[in-house]
UniProtKB/TrEMBL annotation:
This is GMP synthase [glutamine-hydrolyzing]. Transmembrane segments: none annotated. Keywords: ATP-binding, Glutamine amidotransferase, GMP biosynthesis, Ligase, Nucleotide-binding, Purine biosynthesis. It comes from Flavivirga rizhaonensis. One of its GO terms (cellular component) is cytosol. Catalyzes the synthesis of GMP from XMP. It catalyses: XMP + L-glutamine + ATP + H2O = GMP + L-glutamate + AMP + diphosphate + 2 H(+).
């Protein structure tokens, strides 16, 4: 019978046997899979594991610093790399969703490759790939595995992709990953986090991306997500977030006419992201959240709630 404890024991041994005293590099995303993979590898090989956590500037508000601190608190050998400006530059003027994904993926590969080159004698690349990533042609979990695939079609491989691969979670499902994480003592809050796309807020800002739009969406998203937690709704939702729409609409503030941004809130129930239903959030919650957003976030004067299911709508708007 499969148990998280026996999985940990067997996997730690298998990792030790496989990589010996070789150095391993791993990209952390802040998500469940890469975190559990890192903690398992850390247990197996300790300081020979070099983790890199890249800030693409498209993470949630304060996420980079908070998660980096959390990783350090867990004893991981992790380097935080703030490459926000590099991603913003790469995205300047791009409106097409797939071009944005490519630009973000390519920037990630460049940054990661630069960092991997600073480490000497690395032999292995570890990834938090889980079984559904293996069977699906496109990883929905982002991170290196998703970007590698799209880059692969483009041409020459960066050096870090020539490393030998170690994927300790390759044979297990998300719920098992969470149970393994719990056995390893990872904070339940981290293990219960909603999925978040690799391109981050980049595919939730419709149209071109600017630092100001990222700031606005981070504020909106934080109010929404913190509200879900305060109202004990967070764990009933599979994934939630906000989209910044490329339309302005008319409003009033005092006796002034405003012409500002509109945001769409989205919260869905799902088991695997392949199909999803919008969540019937309480009206009182939506009312309070909408007021908070419009009162507190400068530049937004209208909030709508997305009541579309997947299919035919997708979870993300891009
Ligand atoms: P959709 O929007 O296709 O999303 O219903 C299904 C799940 O996949 C996530 N998603 C992505 N994750 N890179 C990722 O790493 C991407 O480009 C990407 N696009 C969508 C989405 O957040 C949802 O969990």
């Amino acid at each position: 019978d499969w148990t998280p404890d026996s999985f940990v024991e067997e996997t730690v041994e298998a990792i030790q046997e496989k990589v010996g005293d070789g150095k391993v590099v791993l990209g952390l995303s802040g998500g469940v899979d890469s975190t559990v993979a890192a903690v398992l590898l850390n247990k197996a090989i300790g300081k020979n594991l070099y983790c890199i956590f890249v800030n693409n500037g498209l993470l949630r508000k304060n996420e980079f610093q908070n998660v980096l601190d959390q990783y350090k608190g867990m004893g991981l050998n992790v380097k935080g790399v703030d490459a926000s400006q590099r991603f913003l530059d790469a995205l300047a003027g791009i409106e097409d969703p797939e071009k944005k994904r490519k630009a973000i993926g390519n920037a990630f590969i460049e940054v990661f490759d630069d960092e991997a080159h600073k480490l000497e004698d690395v032999k292995w690349l570890a990834q938090g790939t889980i079984y559904p990533d293996v069977i699906e042609s496109v990883s929905v979990n982002g991170g290196p595995s998703a970007t590698i695939k799209s880059h692969h079609n483009v041409g020459g491989l960066p050096d870090f992709m020539k490393l030998k691969i170690v994927e300790p979670l390759r044979a297990i499902f998300k719920d098992e990953v969470r149970r393994v994480g719990a056995t390893l003592g990872i904070d339940p809050e981290l293990l219960g986090r909603h999925p978040f796309p690799g391109p981050g807020l980049g595919i939730r800002i419709l149209g071109d991306i600017t630092a100001e739009k990222v700031r606005i969406l981070q504020e909106v998203d934080a109010i929404f997500i913190n509200g879900l937690k305060e109202w004990n709704l967070y764990d009933n939702v599979w994934q939630a977030g906000a989209m910044l729409l490329p339309v302005n609409s008319v409003g009033v503030m005092g006796d002034e006419r405003t012409y500002e941004k509109c945001v769409a809130l989205r919260a869905v129930e799902s088991t695997d992201g392949m199909t999803a239903d919008w969540v019937n959030l309480p009206y009182e919650f939506l009312q309070k959240t909408s007021n908070d957003i419009i009162n507190k976030v400068k530049g937004v004067n209208r909030v709508v709630y997305d009541i579309s299911s997947k299919p035919p709508a997708t979870i993300e708007w891009e």
